[in-house]
Write the structure tokens for this entry.
Amino acid sequence: IVGAFYADGPGRPDAGKVYIIPGELLSDMLQASDLSMDLGDSIPNNVSTIVGSHDKSRLGVWMDAGDINGDGFDDVVVGADMAHGYDSSIPETGRVYIYYGPLAPGVQIDAADTTYSMTVIYGIDAVDHFGSCLTVGDVNGDGLDDIGIGAGALGTLRNVFDREGGAGDGPNNLRENAGEVVVVYGKPNLP
């Protein structure tokens, strides 16, 4: 999984993109001693692509994979730390998308397409940058992968291009820019 969080989408500057490169393709490249791939030039047919939902959403700032719903297939989990909240008038709350596997090779997904099988987890407060980091693993020992999601991009290089940062403000928003971590436990049939 490769993130390009400042890549442009169709009519969406800095929407971000995620490329899912199958291991089979990487193995073939290694065997052929062809160790380069320019995803900005032409994308091989079996590479899947996900594009961010709107301008400056920065999809792909962080990503991971694991079996969140316990069906035996890895799911792709992607952060878009500058995406609008559920209410699009709240800027840079951030979002995390879960795309359920298996993903067909070469599938093209638009994060704005709500008909695609996915779960979207929205940040709450403006400029929290929810999804600025994330990890996937079984933290509670139930055999399903869980997602740890951070809201804490204040003062990092990721923010200096557009504005000074912002981060989760802790319990009840009483600790300005302290950062926050949310754990979403994996389970079958997530909404």
